[in-house]
Amino acid sequence: MATEPRWDNKTWPFESVQSLKAGFKGELHDVTDARLAAEEFLRRLARASTPTSPEHWNDILLVVDELAANAVQYAPGPFGLWMRPTFDGVHVTLHDTSTIPPSPRPFRPGRAGGIGWHLVNTLCDQVSVVVHPDGKDVHVFLPW
N or C: less crowded end of the chain, CB within 10 Å? Predict the structure, then answer.
């Protein structure tokens, strides 16, 4: 039985989705603003190419929340969020002004924090940190 592809042979569906590039001042409310920008990007992506699992949508938003919250908490000043579709997922990059790479902290019940970086590494297919003189870029790849 032959099946036809869901798209023409000229372009992949995700290629029609414009990447997200957004800058934030680094204030507490910017965590919410980053999530809202990510949601709008995912809406556009879902119209072009539906996720292979409903959980992927929420996983991406959770990772954006964690990265933005870490930027606000640990890096002074502004941060940037970039999101782009890939062949089989989403590439998220968050740039902040700290040159210190994130590291896992022990989780202690009753104390806030300690699980965000563990979540990021668990939910993402790939995680890398590139340090620059003016800060760092955290690159993550998630399935879609």
Answer: N
